[in-house]
Fold this sequence. Notes:
Elements: E1 2-5, E2 8-14, E3 20-24, H1 25-42, H2 48-64, H3 81-92, E4 97-100, H4 108-121, E5 128-132, H5 137-148, E6 153-155, H6 157-165, H7 172-176, E7 184-188, H8 189-192, H9 195-202, E8 206-212, E9 219-223, E10 228-231, H10 233-242, E11 245-251, H11 260-270, H12 278-299, H13 306-318, H14 328-336, H15 338-351, H16 354-357, E12 358-359, H17 363-366, E13 374-382, H18 386-405, H19 414-429, H20 431-440, H21 445-451, H22 453-463, H23 475-478, H24 483-499, H25 504-519, E14 524-528, H26 532-545, E15 550-554, H27 560-572, E16 577-581, H28 583-586, E17 596-599, H29 606-614, E18 625-633, H30 637-649, H31 660-674, H32 681-710, H33 718-722, H34 734-746, E19 753-758, E20 772-777, H35 779-783, E21 792-796, H36 799-804, E22 809-810, H37 816-826, E23 834-840, H38 846-851, E24 857-868, E25 872-881, H39 889-895, E26 905-906, H40 916-987, H41 991-998, H42 1003-1051, E27 1055-1069
Helix pairs in contact: 2-34, 2-37, 3-4, 4-5, 9-10, 12-13, 12-15, 18-19, 19-20, 20-24, 21-22, 30-32, 31-32, 40-42
Amino acid sequence: KPTIREGELSYEVLSSNGKKTQIYESEIILKDTEVEKDYLREKDIASPKEFLTKYLAQVFYSYYTSNQIKCITNSRLSLMPHQINVAHRLSEKYFPRMILADEVGLGKTIEAGIYIKEMISRNLAERILLIVPASLVNQWKFEMENKFNIDFTIYDGKKVKKLRRRGTYNHPVLLQNPFYYDNFIICSLQFARNPKYINMLSQITWDIVVFDEAHHLRRYLLNKSTGNFRETLNYKLGRTLSKTTESLLLLTATPLQLHSFELYSLIELVHPEAFDSFSEFEHFRKNIPFINLLFKNLSKIDELNTFEVKNTVKLLRDLNYIDKNTSLNKSINSLKDKAKRSQILIKLEKQHTLSKFLIRNRKKNVISDKYINERVVKTIMVEPTQEELDIYNEIRLYLAKIYNMAGNAKNKNLGLGFVITTLQKLLTSSKEAFLKSLKRRLLTLESLRKEDPDYFTNEYDDLTIESEELEKDNKVKENLLSLENQKKILQEFYNKLKAIPYDSKSEALLELLGKIYQNNSNEKIIIFTQFVDTLFFLKDIIKKAYPSFSINLFYGGIDKNEKKEVVKKFRNSNKFSVLLSTQVGGEGRNFQFCRMLINYDLPWNPMKLEQRIGRLDRIGQKSDKIYIYNFFIEGTIETDVIFALNKRIDLFKESIGQLEPILGKIQEDMKDIIFNEKTPKFEKINEFNRDVEEKVKKAEEMELKLDDLLIDKKSFQAKSLMNYGAYDQIRLQHNELFNFISMFFSMKDKKFGNIYKIYESNEYPLLNGEFLIKIEISENFLRLNNTLLQHQYIGTFNLKLARKMEEVDFFALGHPLIDAIIKLCLSNRLLGKFSVLELKKNSLSKKFKSELRNINQFFLFIFKIQFNGYITERTIIPVILDNNGKIYELLAKNIFNGSDMSQFFQFNLNEEKNYESEIMLMKKQFPKAQKVVQQRKSRWKQDVLKLNDKIFQNERKKKKKLYIYKKKTLTHKLETLKKKLKRKKRETPSDKTIDRINSLIDQKKKMKQLEKFQRLKQDIAFIKKDIASTKQKLDDLEFQYIDLKNDMQKKNLRKFETKLLSEGIIILSD
């Protein structure tokens, strides 16, 4: 099927081994035109550099496309052990369908990103869709690009319109569905749930679909006994895409919020076949705490007292794990047998179905105390003048009046309510921001969207995340804020505010900055505000008061490169540095090098506050303490409410992620208090306090309930995680990749470009021993590539430095430049079939020198062993022999291990010398080399077959379960329809009855009876049609399943192929 990839047409091709790949149109053309020419070129002797560069490219490609976990060292990550564990669990499942439910702050995005990159590197995932809340779209794009070198395209209404306007495509499918244009797509949940887009997205077969904040995919249980429910548009989107994707990941820290039906609904998305009904799930759920207790007791049976052992036996009997007729003593003795206990544990694990669908890690289990920073919270209470307080109260009451006129909580005009709330927040953010809003008449939803997109994206889109329809402007209520009706009163407010010559809040900020400067003139501080107008206002007053300070702005209005530059300036500055940031500006960025944060205004949603603090409070923070300054205005209702909330849940001192289900809704309660006109303030706040306490208690209960469901033998403690052998399989070192790229750019008189080390730079302050890499790409290289490359890159191959400097490129496998270089090296544009290499004896160890003292030359054979099965695996093996056929395995490992080849080889080839006699000798040694490879293959073969068969069997079981579930569902539907048809037929009047109806004199009664009969006939016709359709679906399902099994079997060839890639002569020189 044709697809546009990177601006070029590509095709999905089914290979003889059953594997699907995509190739560019230009690649198909090249194959026919250059075969003969390339064949002749390969007969030439390759230069040593060209030969060795091609060898290294083959090694890196085989490594990158292998089924080992390798992307954790090829991504800009500071990994925690539990993330390595989750990445392994996902990757070993091939195409997992899982709920990732780690607590807030444990890196679910990173876990999903590692899995995505792994699947891309293995050539198993070409179409990937990320659906996230609107306020997180840019953050996800940044994380995927910055951490994993994966470029996702953001799709929204503007993007779709732009693609529809394009006149360059004629294909009718492309014309109807713009989502065919890109393979890696990210879009907001609010955008994707539009029924029109649900239909378009479902037309595409996706390899991986990821939902972030998946608890928004919600169904509501209407009747527990019948299992009837109401489905939201969000859930419909999830259900529809679940059917069209191989892998489905649902990310949520709170899969269980208020009712177990929420968790059941998410499981239905990933594995609809798991439970027949909600009642079956409930029966299963109620047994899990007992199963977990058995896991715990059986694991430490020797430590239990007599009473605990007896209770364990009783529980095993009740759940039918041991024979009820066996005596108590005999049962106790059997549990002391390790093998018997093991059998019971295996049975228990099979019963613990939830661990197959859901992964959850808790901070207390996986994060060591040494990673937890102390939060030092300081309150800055601003005392406004009476004049400031009076105008604040006057405006608040005015806004409250209009807010309450916009409707009650159930039918409030969402847009108008949002505008009023924004004005109230502006009022307490800064006088200047509020004045600018009045001056611009920022009084409609659309103008707010244009004037401050940062705030709009962060607040309004979150407000509408669970709305069932797009906001429709209520023109009548919008007129409450029209210029004509409100011009006089708004002008009055403007004049009063403008007349106040001072701003107590900004003066308090300047005073605080002065005190901090006196203590440390090199301090770095991030000041957060919700509004761009406040951002620019603060910049002006700080610059005026402290001209020597370094001040930078960080908000959504600056582009990607500007953001990189701002982070770099802020981090590298030796002055007292201030970074002014909006909520959106700071998302996705990590500021571990900064320890001070000022909340100039406080968001009403406490989770936004936690996100701000999380930019600094994360693993890698250099300071033991993080200082958080919070600005409050004495006498305002906002201060009273947030103080009350802080008393209940300690907003600033510790992570509040587990309270997310209630905190996201608390801002609605805050609005009711702030815009309250009638009930006394303190009465409202007391009511608010009681409500918060009840909600916190409920959230804690749900947390414990979730723990009971999920804690099993697959839960990992920090100690055991630290010993997890994830890194055992990772062989690649970043200096090996650097050596390969350096050799590539030194070939052919540097015709492909140049590479430099940067040790000193005013732009990038570097410590002793640190250096950056500058790579310049030639026009010649750019012409040879299909991918869109830059002319110049500045970055590093060093993972530690890449983490430190997020604004520079991280050169690793998966980076577009590195991938383009490997692709070019593997093509026929580079020679590499045969070469003559000159090995420097002095570069070898004493042991090798002694062993090789009487040898002048070797023969080198480089083989590729490839396994083609349900998975594809390959390995590159270099074999070195002397003239007598003796094998030098250790020498080959020592030289061809990815080290700097220039330390072993001279790169001067004597092109005039004739090597025919050496080539004849080399050919004689080929069978011996081949035999060596066959022996090595047998050692490798067993592991690969085991891995292949495990993945194949798991996938086959998964497909079979899904087939049985679908068949069962359709069969049940067919039986129900047949019963319904039978009932309707019984209701059909006889011919005699119809004649009687026709003879009725009362025309009204007659028409009513005939209409009823007609409706009955239509119902029967529809049911018959539905029965026929369901039967057809059952037949189709049967054929589809047979085809699927055949395709899987066809793909699973389980064949090994050995191919000689290249050969050479190695001459030893002193």
